[in-house]
Specification:
CATH architecture: 3-Layer(aba) Sandwich
CATH topology: Aminopeptidase
Strand order of the largest sheet: 8-9-7-6-5-2-1-10
CATH class: Alpha Beta
Shape: globular
Number of helices: 6
Number of domains: 1
Oligomer: single chain
Distance between the termini: 9 Å
Largest sheet: 8 strands, mixed
CATH superfamily: Gcn5-related N-acetyltransferase (GNAT)
Structural class: alpha+beta
Strand content: 15-25%
Number of strands: 10
Helix content: 25-40%
Length: about 240
């Protein structure tokens, strides 16, 4: 079962949000995802597989054929009714964005494609420079969310998604480092970040999450990617 890691597009955001709602307690509005992708379009990625039987979450196709504009509108309206966090300000404007991305990124999107994981990243634009800190927000990436569907875990997908995003942060934005937060109880994610990806613990932030669980704030230096021979790939088969 080949898995493809490719750059995320606007057409993927609805499925990315669904994956998040299915797997994680930290959920975000659709506008938050859209903000990431429109502002930093090259650093978020999805993991996909080809599934001719079940590609129902593919927004752009119906039964292997390109969806018409009316069908796209119906899909978007249906999702808006079912998902309280899906509240684009203007459905028609979203449709235009999806169509524009579909034309621009047609080489990425397969008609039988099924998204099984994602990583959502940005530059750290929500912090002011702190003279007592060695973190410069303007040159610091931030991994907002990482998720893989349960039936596709333990295949190395999460690590590959992270590596693509970290390399893209360095290559496209010259990010010096990257930070993220992880629940203290999430042993699998902590193991990935600390033992496989070499993140270090900066601090423990008490009551960071909505349910008041503490979070490890972790950081990774991205300068090591300067010595690598290969840049990140937009399409990576694993």
């Amino acid at each position: 079962m080949p898995i493809n890691i490719r750059r995320a597009t606007v057409a993927d955001l609805i499925t990315m949000q669904h994956t998040n709602l299915t797997n994680l307690p930290e959920n975000y509005t659709f506008k938050f995802y859209l903000y990431h992708l429109l502002t930093w379009p090259h650093i978020s990625f999805v993991a996909t597989t080809i599934d001719p039987v079940d590609s129902s979450d593919n927004l752009l196709f119906v039964n292997g054929e390109p969806a018409s504009e009316n069908i796209l509108k119906e899909k978007i309206n249906k999702i808006a009714k079912e998902n309280p966090l899906f509240k684009p300000e203007n459905n028609d404007q979203l449709l235009e964005l999806i169509n524009a991305n579909a034309k621009m990124d047609s080489q990425y999107i397969n008609k039988n494609e099924k998204i099984v994981g994602y990583v959502l990243a940005k530059l750290n634009d929500d912090e002011e420079p702190n003279p007592d800190s060695d973190i410069n927000p303007a040159q610091t990436g931030h991994v907002t969310s990482l998720s893989v569907m349960r039936t596709y875990r333990k295949l190395g997908i999460a690590e590959k998604l992270m590596l693509q995003s970290l390399k893209a942060l360095r290559d496209t934005h010259n990010a010096k480092d990257v930070i993220l937060h992880v629940r203290e109880s999430n042993g699998a994610a902590f193991h990935l970040y600390k033992n496989k990806l070499d993140f270090e613990i900066l601090t423990v932030e008490k009551g960071y999450y909505m349910d008041k669980e503490d979070a490890y704030k972790m950081k990774k230096d991205l300068s090591a990617y300067d010595s690598e021979d290969e840049d990140f790939e937009d399409n990576l088969l694993i």
